[in-house]
Amino acid sequence: MLPWKETESIFLTYPKDYCRTVDRSDETRDLDSLNEGKRPLVIILAWTSAIERHMRLYSKIFEDEGYITLISICPVMVAFWHQDIMHEIAQKLVNTIEENNLYDNPTIIQLFSNGGAMQYEFFMKALKRNRKFLNVKGVIFDSLPAKTNFRNYFKAIHIMRGGTSEAKSALMTASLFTGWRMRVCFRAF
């Protein structure tokens, strides 16, 4: 069981209209006939500390096109301090796909920033560990992952804290960055 169960979120949404047609390049095709009747699946891996309603705006874009969406939001504390729990979140994603029999669906993965990239890494490891393969048609990198350095941590924390003084943000960044680096060193030994 995850210690941040109340903040870790995975949402699976099916489109409301299964009979919808899509017009692409003067060709109208029924979405159910694409890829042998399998509905396209979009896996959205959110940025750290994303808010559900913001991620729902992204999923709605795909749902309006008739795609199935699967959103994963990772808590800030897990991303910064307890990356070992990321394995559990990734396994939950794999289990959701398996329970809903979505492995053969054409899949697009959209990931946002460092949080999404981190989730993507653990998700791919979980798929490999379970010997499962997705029918991935593409990966979208939105807000490319940034280098892990003090300056980028500071900017992210300052924005997430919304209005916190720069001194407080710098102090929080220093403690998080130092703690994270120490964890990396301890894992190496």
TrEMBL record:
GO cellular-component term (any): nuclear membrane
Name listed for the protein in its UniProt record: Uncharacterized protein
Domain of life assignment: Eukaryota
Record key words, sorted: Membrane, Nucleus, Transmembrane, Transmembrane helix
Native species: Henosepilachna vigintioctopunctata
Alphabetized InterPro entries for the sequence: DUF829_TMEM53
Primary localisation category: membrane
Compartment(s) where it occurs, according to its Swiss-Prot or TrEMBL record: Endomembrane system; Nucleus membrane
Membrane topology: Single-pass membrane protein
